[in-house]
TrEMBL record:
GO biological process terms held by the UniProt record: fatty acid beta-oxidation
UniProt-listed PROSITE patterns: ENOYL_COA_HYDRATASE
Pfam families xref list: ECH_1
Keyword match Amino-acid biosynthesis: no
Family: Belongs to the enoyl-CoA hydratase/isomerase family.
Protein name: Enoyl-CoA hydratase
Organism: Bacillus salacetis
EC class: lyase
Entry EC number(s): 4.2.1.17
Length: 259
């Protein structure tokens, strides 16, 4: 990583690209520059062949308590239109490498939306998720109504979005929003362990699995199946496919190169 950032920390270790939201005094409230820094770090990691998996976390007692209310309080509709600020969020969704989120404390509003940009989520037992925008007389603007509905269905999403209530980590897990709930003191350790496990998987498989799963959300079953099939075939053009299958036949451990 050859850039220093103001609102995030970023670094790489053992194939894992780390991004930590770093505005703990305001519970990592997400301002515009922070989003562009997150995107910039993600895109650098996406291009760096040493990085296999990205881990997103927050510093301090919260993951992120939402978009920065102070920054947007006096904006007009035209400011939003001209800033087109949510484009960066769209680009996060097309990062090719797996993104794993580690959520502690609050993941609210834009913070919940940032968590939903991750492919998998680990949360501490004190994590709370929710969309409190309705209490500010607005609504989610960075994908909350869309991503939550696709994950948990219309009627449940309506309730969480319209009440602004906060859900516990256990409830979020029951609804299929998060993968694991762990004790707070173990959150980073457990998430890193999982990321390290994925970092050893064949990178091209992860890449095309991610793409295919994303298409499953948007495509019809038929279109999705066609897409999956093309990706399945494509993997047979890789050296790793030969290595994986030969290693199985020769009863040895595969050595993947990501090619
Ligand atoms: N924006 C800006 N500052 C925020 C913030 C936010 N979203 N959330 C918290 N902060 C700041 C507080 O103003 C406070 O700053 P000061 O110490 O300078 O006063 C600091 O973080 C600590 O917060 P609290 O003292 O309020 O902490 P608490 O433990 O009492 O409460 C909380 C925690 C319930 C999360 C409360 O801070 C809160 O309700 N925050 C706002 C949550 C929210 O409404 N999020 C949605 C934002 S809109 C959005 O996200 C739109 C979108 O879709 C893109």
């Amino acid at each position: 990583m050859n850039r220093t950032f103001e609102y995030i920390n970023a670094g790489m270790e053992n194939g894992i690209g780390f991004v930590e939201l770093n505005r703990p005094k305001v519970l990592n409230a997400i301002n515009r520059q922070m989003v562009s820094e997150i995107l910039s770090a993600f895109e650098q990691f996406d291009r760096d062949s040493e990085v296999k998996v990205i881990l997103l976390s927050g510093k301090g007692r919260a993951f992120a308590a939402g978009a920065d209310i102070d920054e947007m309080a006096n904006d007009s509709a035209i400011d939003f239109e001209l800033l087109n600020q949510f484009t960066d969020w769209d680009r996060i969704a097309v990062v090719k490498k797996p993104i794993i989120g580690a959520v502690q404390g609050f993941a609210l509003g834009g913070g919940f939306e940032m968590a939903l940009c991750c492919d998998m989520l680990f949360a501490s037992d004190d994590a709370e998720f929710g969309f409190p925008e309705v209490n500010l007389a607005v609504m989610p603007g960075a994908g909350g109504t869309q991503r939550l509905t696709k994950l948990i269905g219309k009627t449940r999403a309506m309730e969480w979005l319209m009440t602004g209530d906060r859900m516990s980590a256990k409830e979020a897990q029951r609804l299929g929003i998060i993968n694991r709930v762990v004790a707070r003191e173990l959150l980073m350790e457990e998430t890193k362990k999982f990321a390290a496990r994925l970092a050893k998987q064949p990178p091209l498989s992860l890449r095309l699995i991610k793409e295919s799963v994303h298409k499953a959300v948007d495509y019809s079953l038929y279109e999705g199946m066609q897409y999956e099939r093309k990706n399945f075939s494509l993997l047979f053009a890789s050296e790793d496919q030969k290595e994986g299958m030969n290693a199985f036949i020769e009863k040895r451990k595969p050595d993947y190169k990501g090619k």
